[in-house]
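Hi support team,

I've been running sequence recovery on a batch of backbones for a student project. Most finish fine, but this one hangs at about 90% for roughly twenty minutes before it completes. I'm not sure whether the input is malformed or the queue is just slow. I've pasted the structure tokens below so you can try to reproduce it. Let me know if you need the job ID as well.

Thanks,
M.K.
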């Protein structure tokens, strides 16, 4: 990320942590966060540069997005909560919403914090939505819409995987399937890029007057980095640290499946589901849709751990408190707010998805320290 992007992220997150420190039950006023990794490991049909039609297209993690009119799911779920009538069941969304050609404000360079998986990216002359991004095999499936006035021609030279060998030589063996792929103005086509190197995870896009990269969404562990929370051994790692106004440190995970810990507790985001639900607790879909991230937490100490406050931001919602009472609505999917010594728990946390420029993050204020998962819109759909 550029320094300007980092500054924006840190400023917004510090504002949220300031609100969080004033009173455990208080709502935070604002949050400007960024997002982490990218991928969609859902199974897709093999498709190479085929036109994408309206409605549900072939393959991909996509589906029609609901409109802004009131929907039965919201009314039913709200009524159920008020009556205390039981558990809210997740309604999985089959695919991400289709890319469309509706007018959109193009992203600036500073809007692209991380690789966006759950939301489209808009440029001056084209837009795209990632459908699949995997390693072993290395494969990127991406829908590209031409919003310019001339043809876009995708080739092996302007869209390619890159990975270097030990001598610094290009070793990806990248190939655009069916290249060259021509996308006429006003047209959306699906493009598939593969690499012979199974660990290739960085793709360069250099066309339509814009040059940038998209990166594989999973955290890339090095040396002694943990790859999951499977035991209660103390762990001391994190992406970076921010302090609230009282000097309390919050350890931040920047990527999907990145394990963070402070010696007393450790956690990771291990799954993500996109949902048809209209409302879960205080979080409704608004003009976007709902998703839920699965979190795994280990209490690595000999003392009981409690989650004192959980704040959710995303899709235009900022610092919404998701209480233990709200969490109880999820039934067996609920994340426990009390964690016994030397035990591991897991559960789901919902958030709203709308625009890739929105800040996304979940703040945990616990008896064992502060933790943050950021950039959930860059997490892969992984169920």
């Amino acid at each position: 990320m550029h320094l300007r992007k980092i500054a924006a992220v840190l400023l917004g997150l510090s504002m949220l942590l300031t609100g969080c420190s004033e009173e455990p039950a208080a709502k935070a006023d604002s949050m400007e966060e960024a997002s982490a990794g990218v991928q969609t490991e859902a199974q897709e049909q093999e498709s190479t540069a085929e036109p994408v039609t309206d409605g549900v297209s072939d393959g991909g993690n996509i589906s029609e997005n609901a409109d802004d009119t009131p929907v039965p799911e919201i009314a039913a779920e709200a009524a159920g909560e008020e009556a205390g009538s039981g558990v809210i069941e997740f309604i999985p969304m089959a695919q991400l919403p289709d890319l469309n050609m509706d007018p959109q404000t193009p992203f600036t360079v500073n809007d692209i914090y991380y690789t966006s998986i759950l939301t489209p990216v808009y440029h001056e002359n084209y837009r795209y939505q990632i459908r699949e991004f995997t390693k072993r095999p290395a494969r990127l499936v991406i829908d590209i819409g031409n919003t310019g006035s001339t043809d876009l021609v995708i080739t092996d030279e302007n869209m390619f995987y890159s990975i270097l060998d030990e001598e610094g030589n290009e070793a990806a063996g990248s190939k655009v399937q069916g290249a060259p792929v021509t996308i006429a103005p006003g047209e959306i086509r699906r493009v598939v890029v593969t690499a012979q190197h199974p660990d290739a995870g960085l793709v360069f896009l250099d066309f339509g007057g814009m040059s940038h990269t998209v990166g594989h969404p999973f955290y890339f562990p090095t040396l002694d980095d943990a790859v999951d929370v499977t035991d209660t051994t103390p762990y001391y790692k994190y992406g970076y640290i921010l302090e609230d106004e009282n000097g309390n440190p919050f350890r931040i995970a920047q990527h999907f499946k990145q394990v963070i810990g402070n010696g007393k507790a450790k956690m990771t985001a291990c799954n993500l589901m996109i949902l048809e639900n209209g409302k879960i607790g205080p979080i409704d879909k608004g003009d976007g849709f709902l998703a839920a991230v699965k979190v795994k937490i280990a209490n690595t100490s000999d003392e009981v751990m409690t989650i004192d406050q959980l704040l959710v931001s995303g899709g235009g919602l900022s610092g919404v408190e998701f209480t233990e009472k709200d969490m109880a609505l999820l039934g067996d999917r609920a994340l426990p707010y009390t964690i016994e010594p030397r035990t591991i728990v897991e559960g789901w946390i919902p958030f709203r998805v709308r625009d890739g420029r929105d800040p996304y993050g979940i703040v945990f204020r616990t008896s064992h320290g502060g933790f943050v998962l950021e950039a959930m819109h860059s997490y892969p759909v992984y169920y």
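--
Follow-up from support: It reproduced on our side and the slowdown came from queue contention, not your input. Residues 299 and 330 are 22 Å apart (CA to CA). No action needed from you.
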